[in-house]
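Fold tokens
===========
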Amino acid sequence: MTRHNVVIPADFPPLVSASPHLEELRQVAEYQLYTDRPQDASEVIRRLRNADILLNSRGSLAFPEDILKQLPRLKMIAVCGIGFDSIHLPTATAQGIVVCNVPGRTASIVAEHALAMMLSTARRITWMNNSLQQGNWSGELSIPLTGKRLGVVGTGNIGCRMLQLCRAIGMKTSAWSLNPDPQKAAQLQFDYVDLETLLRESDVVSLHTRLSAKTHHLINAQRIALMKPTAILVNTSRGAVVCTKDLLDALHNGRLFGAALDVFEQEPLAADDPVRSCPRVVLTPHSADTTQEAIDLLTTGCIDNITAFLRGEPRNVVNPDVLNRP
């Protein structure tokens, strides 16, 4: 019986290769693992030329139309995470490529990271730590969050968990979503409001929406202008949900108190990227789910998706129209 060939074209920084569960994949398929980033699109195509299944670790590579069209053998893309914005879904669907993600498993872990970044920004912990390590002894005016309002953009698993965590520290909560769910709102005791109201009223705006044509640069100069000058923006969703230039302009001109960013429009973040030198930003390198527990959850979820696909029972399919192709 012919075994399917799974290719992991760029496990960098390491995610799948750091997991003991990777060997479970060998029970159902052959696999080839690359632990460096390919230099260009032609190298991506070369690595995947014989792949039946692509395991996209961390969603670390983009698969636009021109690359997918050069991979006629490919039948499945298994995303090792929740985000699938790096894949051109219409082309994948047209070519019969099933795309699966791993939703929900690390929601608490990512929300915890967002909470930590929010607290660090509000209480200016990062700035004071750096100052002390440089030999200074000076405090910074910070913002307490008890009694303040959190506005969550996107009420999927991570956004809802963030709402719960922030209610636990005494914050008021509201949310906006492209797909509001009144049952969630009633269960978690938050109110849905329109986006403009959320931006005007919130002391912290935390982004948990997926990247799409509708959410690209959702937070731009016009919408930032609605926010309080004492407000904080937290982004652990996707970098391009925020127009970085507009955000930096607002921070440098005192129109926002601070921002906390785990994701960026271009990743990895360039060494000379101006966001690195902005004193009012807390940064982490797209690492909200970089814990051993998260690695285990994402790897096993991804392998479970591959196994289900090979059984002819695909699950967590993000382009379901592909299943109806003749």
